[in-house]
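Re-run with default settings, no changes from the original entry. Doing this only to confirm the output is reproducible before filing.
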Amino acid sequence: MSIFSNSPSAVAPSLWERIVQRKEESPDLETRRSIFLGTDADTGVPVCVPRGTLDSSHFHVLGMTRAGKTAATLMPIVFQILRGYRDESGKPAPKSPVIIFDLKGDQAFFNATRAAALKAGRRFRFLSTRQGDDCRYQANSRAASSG
């Protein structure tokens, strides 16, 4: 079973959801601000990185095609950024904008990200290269059009 289950259950939250919720409820600001990446395979201890790491450096995820890079890494990071965190006073901190360029058109990623954005009360816009999508790049113009 993947710890990054993106099919939430109303009865029992996934391990990922429980760890992220525990992190979000921590009294320590840096813990609340951190991004949970997974658990150590040997110890089961949650592995988190400071949010600033993603703001100030590159992040590479390597793997074979269809190995699960999006589901195991990108989606959990995006979901946590969309959710935000509580600041020093315990109030919701200003949320960072999330901009995703998915030129391959991963429909599952699109649907999951859209649902997470709406759940977090965030505006959701997308740019697609596929004909018929709501907003797509116009190869012969300088602007994106909205449908």
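The chain has one domain: 15-146. The chain has a mean pLDDT of 77.
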